[in-house]
């Protein structure tokens, strides 16, 4: 009987330890933030959205090759967040994450918090690796 209790205790401990390592992400619905994906002939942004997990907030999405795009995609994503009063509060550049399981790439950029309701988030794809300032556009 004691051996069976020890087995059950060890099994429960293993389940608790492995489940503590899982970082579950949840899509933020109805955040009141407008996300504007800006695609071009090199690539088009699909499904951009804010996600929350135990580490905070991130903006994630996919980039698929456009009519003149190459595969796998290379380059970066520019992100500009404009709050309701019209000022740019955040400008970020994030690299693409190539996923060989499908014909496209992903991006993910962490932020300290979700932008305030009424904010506008513009997301650009660039096929060049060099960075440039789209936040003023």
Mean pLDDT: 78
Inertia-based shape: flat
Helix count, per DSSP?
1
Radius of gyration, in Å, reads: 20 Å
Largest sheet: 5 strands, antiparallel
Can you list the strand order of the major beta sheet?
1-3-4-8-7
Low-confidence stretches: none
Helix and strand content put the structural class at mainly beta
Describe the structure.
The protein is mainly β and 137 residues long. The protein is built from one helix and nine strands, in the order H-E-E-E-E-E-E-E-E-E. The strands form two sheets. A five-stranded antiparallel beta sheet has the order 1-3-4-8-7, with no helix packed on it. Strands 2-9-5-6 form a four-stranded mixed beta sheet, with no helix packed on it. The chain starts with a helix and ends in an 11-residue tail after the last strand.
Care to give the gist of this entry?
The chain is mainly beta and 137 residues long. Helices cover 14% and strands 45% of the residues.
Which key terms come to mind for this protein?
137 residues, mainly beta, five-stranded antiparallel sheet, 1 helix, 9 strands, flat
Task: Record the SSE blueprint.
Layout: H1 2-20, E1 26-27, E2 34-38, E3 43-53, E4 56-65, E5 76-82, E6 88-95, E7 97-99, E8 104-111, E9 120-126
Parallel strand pairs: 2-9
Antiparallel strand pairs: 1-3, 3-4, 4-8, 5-6, 5-9, 7-8
